[in-house]
Write a structure and sequence with these properties.
The protein is built from nine helices and 17 strands. By secondary structure, the chain is α+β, with helices and mostly antiparallel strands. The chain has two domains: about 80 residues, Ribosomal Protein L15, Chain: K, domain 2; about 220 residues, no CATH class. The strands form three sheets. It has a ten-stranded antiparallel β-sheet. Strand 16 and strand 17 form a beta hairpin. Helix 3 packs antiparallel against helix 5. The radius of gyration is 21 Å and the shape is globular. About 40% of the residues are buried.
Length: about 325
Amino acid sequence: MASRSAPRFLNPISDEVTDDHAVYASSTDVVALTAPVAAFLEFCDHERIRPVLLTGPGVRLTAACATMLTDIRGFWAVHGPDGVLEAATGRPVTSFADLWLPHEAAPPGVVHDGVVSITLDAYVRHRADNATRIGVVAELAAGALGVALPHRWGVWEPFGRRWDTDAMTAFLRAQMPQTGPVHAVGEETTFLTQRVGRTRRGLLEHLRFSARPASGEDLHGQATALLARLEEAADVEIAVVTTRTSEADGTVRPGGYPATAPLAAVLGPRVTHHLGIDTAALAERHRVSSLGRARTPSTLIDFGGTDNPWHRLLDLGLALEPDRVLSTLGVEVPDAG
């Protein structure tokens, strides 16, 4: 396929590398986060160039692969009888740059029903001592949703290590002060990705846990119950619960799925206090309640009953000022220049 950029240099993992993007072509039926795929995505992230995953039209991506591709703002294209198409929409692509250059929004050509999972995206604080175990927050989330624990974890697929928080903690501790991501899978759509960093206030764990809940009823109720349990049992800083739609095994196919929807969020006591959250003012635009101790409460926001929950979440994010949130978490704020 013609490229608008001259080749940058040869890379044994990539099929094409230019000044602004790199391409990885796969002919497998399922693209997993194997060592070569992970190395390609890490290379693109490190070099700050756009990754393009090129597959056949009938290919599926595992949750781990799709998550990492999304996290580093990658692109997925499919090559079939009709040429190269954008995977999500089926929009024709004459050059890979068409994937990211400005264009009119195109709706998905095919929308799959799939199965709905609940996804917890949370930042949780831990003490930097030998008693800390990474993985217990994921276990808490699994218990709250009534699902089995993940059974295998690792860095690349297929994940070969049995679920063991002691082993996972030791593995992550050896990477400090900042770890790379580790992933885990369980039954059906259960998937976990997490990383840990040392900050001036101890350890900060960022995890994303997704699972198909035991009951498909009242997802908002389950989301708020999950966040209430998290606030009670862990030192949560900030957490958001959303939906995720995928195939029954957690993979995704070319085409679209019902849009992800935010269900609820919680701001832990430290974030609530340091940002000076005015619960009464926030309640004028959101369904808000307080959790935890009266003197140092957490703030729970329920996005249920709103016509456009994404607008509500965006409004909340702007009101909190992202740079102030990062500063409160002890994360260095990126230089705008």
